[in-house]
Amino acid sequence: MIQRTKNRCFHPLSRVLFAGFLTLAFAISSAATEQLVLQKSGTNPQTRAAENYLDEANQTTVNANALQVKSATAANQRSLILFDFSLLPNVGIKTAVLTLTVQTAPTATRTYDVFPLDSLFAQSAATWKTRIADLAWGAAGGDIPGTATATANVGTHTAQASWTITSDVQSWYSGNAGGVPVPNYGSLIMDSAESSATAYQTVFYSNSAATPADAPSLTVTFVQNVANLAATAGNAQVALSWTFPTAIGTVLKSTTGVLILRSSSGVPVNKGSVPTDGTAYALCSTIGNGTVVYNNTALSTTFTDNSSDTCGAPANGTTYYYKVFTQDSALNYSTSGSSGDGGSLTVPEDSATPSASAPYSSNWMTATYSTSLAPPSLFPGFLAMVGTQTNFMFAVNASTGMRSYPPISLGGAITGRSPLIDAADSSLGEDMLYVADQSGLAYGIAADTGQTVWAVDPLNAGGTPFLAAGGLLVKTYATSSDTLSHDLLILGTRNSSTLTGNAIVAVDGNTGATIWSDVGNTGTGSSAIPAMDIITATPTISYTANTVWVTSESNGGTQPSLWELNANTGKVLATLSLGDIDSSPMLTPDGSTLFVGTDAGTVYAINTSTATVITSIAGGDGEVVGYPLLVGVSSPYTVVFSGTADVHGLTYNSSTQTFTANWETAVTTPSAPIGVYGLTDLYVGSGDGKIHELNISTGADIRDIVANTGQPGIVGDPGLDISLMHIYVSTSDQRMYSFTFPY
Amino acid sequence: MRLRHYHSRRTRASFLAALFLFAGMCGCALMPQGGDPGSPSGDNVLQPAAQILFCDKPGTSCSPATSFSVSKLRDLNIVVNWSNLPPGNHAQLLSVLHTANGLYQSFHNAFLVSPEAGGSFSTSDALPVAGTWIVQRSLTGTWTVQASLDGQIVATQTVTLTP
């Protein structure tokens, strides 16, 4: 898996944010407990905001950019509102108050309830019945819990109504239900006594208000996290450094310094390790599983943990984890909620392993809220993005690990590595991320801002799940055989309810429009599509042939499992029955040979011109994980793949058309390997909480570095950033790590 | 994975009865954290309770069990049978935690309980297994599923995944 270096300047999000927020003339140079009003204006576009009202009397009508609440028999109206939190990517939330300005008051005082929405909606599609694309609400009229977060009265002369929704906003940052963060799907506002015989309606100003001050607002108080946290391990010591960010809101309490927790038990400081606001902590006191090793109120930006640490000096060979909380003059910490809420989930942390000879430290660690074992999507040197199975897509600065913006909330679990393409190559002319999720939705997302450009159900079938990320045919790289005018996203379904009727669908990267689809076991004659089992791996694009190679399971070996399709039309060009395949195929650079690994542990070499098997080699140990890694630009090629307990190294000689088994190296439940041509080593994540560095030629396990061996954190497929020489991994300990390579 | 209405509300009660009976027969009846569904709380208001069941197939062919081999499992279907629900809207969050107690996946289900439903409702979600990290990275062992309702954890149940 060769990773392309991005060689142009990425548009940093900060350019957007700071150019667009000139109203903050009161900003000063250091962070603190601050207050900020999120409100659409000429300088704050609220790009990711959305608003609609749902109308029971017109159940299929989209009412975008309008906010109305009504109680009337069979004609209730409910408003949806979603704020863009992009200005607050790295903060602890303290309070949040929603305010709406009344445009038309009701004829009698009404009580309005605010609930957190439980499902993703799209402003362009939400109706009483439908929330996004063709997907229905779980309950018509909006998916909400049984209890309102807040209530407010709106009377005949009410100018504004406000609701305190702190717990909802904190839950989006940390999590209220046992510390499980929930996606930010926005809020729903409804009359507390609907279906009144006498109709009562309030019209609120929306983001379309002629006077910006009338637009909906969310007043948030928060404590910013420290920035640029770095740990440097040495001989029996760890040096930490950080910076205090510039204030972005009205300063309510000034920053005084930091409180640093350390864990030396082999696991990071957990999300429940939360200092209580207003409480001072003594050195060496314990908060959760962390020990207070530094408590500074003099705005220090460094701390060296060494032999003078009265809580216990760092020992060589032990991995230490640090979590750094900002604190202010009122002892407010950069947390969002309590210990039970997982309130320190988004607080910066880092790790370091001191050593007399070979100390190392993570470049950064960042919370992903849940397990992810997919490699991140990369703009090398600039941006790393990772999707999670709790419906979030994270975007972090590749150098610092700081969030570029708050995670994007999507409609379902995201499992694969989503294709990310820069503006210079994208047919849309934007930095684009293409995502597919288990709710059956596909998305085009502007990577610079996190804004959803389009969201579709490409099969228009009520949401057929996608497990694997899509393959992207980039128009810029295509030959003249590509007759389409845009990038093409190719997706395969994992609909486990059918053994034969799964589908491959292609989507216009610019608009989300479905270009073609192949549904298994349909059609007749030359248009017949064979039965298709579940698809769990990302398709591979052959630019030389303008075709798409897709792998699938095989219904117990009775159906095809390798598919070649015409990228323009979706016509099935060839199929092969190789048994279940749950890994992606890999092409040689000249496109002549395709390598594919099966669930039985066999690797096949396929002649792509004839779609026939050239040769194969058995001997893997179980299902091939991820993909067979191809290293080299010409024959003989090195092919490396992982099984259940071993990493295997092969050579494939295209002249003799033979595989040669070179080495096997035992690694605990290894991830897919990653390496690039020109390097002598490759990298494998492991179930032992480490990233193993193996010699490509010999398989020798040269050195390992620790992500998390305490739980242990199962390390996912690594991604390599050859611009920064950073390796990124996500783990089952709900974090993403960055280390420098070679070790 | 959205809500799976695998039976109509008219047939839900009878199905639930059969499900409870079957669960009892196979030894996998589960005590929800919310307490015995039939026991009133101190203020005589029944608290919502949930029973979490695990099946290897979706829908009415569900065969509840507490241990599954991942080599034979396409999906782990997680059925939550709610009782004592007040009428109105509800939001369920299923949190699936793998062996090291790390959050692996979550499922959101929102539903409306009608006054005629008798406080019962069932949801079903499918945790993909075949072709996933669970198989490829051998994420076997004891897993935990938490069912939260309207932001409160109501029930927790474990399930064992074997190679």
Describe the structure.
The complex is a heterodimer of chains A (743) and B (163). Among the domains of chain A are: 31-222, no CATH class; 225-361, Sandwich (Immunoglobulin-like). Helices cover 2% and strands 39% of the residues of chain A. In chain A, the strands form twelve sheets. In chain A, strands 1, 3, 5, 10, 12, 13, 16, 17, 18, 20, 21 and 22 form a twelve-stranded antiparallel beta sheet that branches. In chain A, strands 2-4-11-6-9 form a five-stranded antiparallel beta sheet, with no helix packed on it. In chain A, strands 23-53-52-51 form a four-stranded antiparallel beta sheet, with no helix packed on it. In chain A, a hairpin with a 5-residue loop joins β49 (690-695) and β50 (701-706). Chain A is flat and about 85 Å long. Chain A starts with 12 loop residues before the first helix and ends with a strand. A five-stranded mixed beta sheet of chain B has the order 2-8-7-4-5, with no helix packed on it. In chain B, strands 1-3-6 form a three-stranded antiparallel beta sheet, with helices on one face. The longest helix of chain B is centred in the first third of the chain and has 17 residues, at 9-25. Chain B is elongated. The two termini of chain B are 25 Å apart.
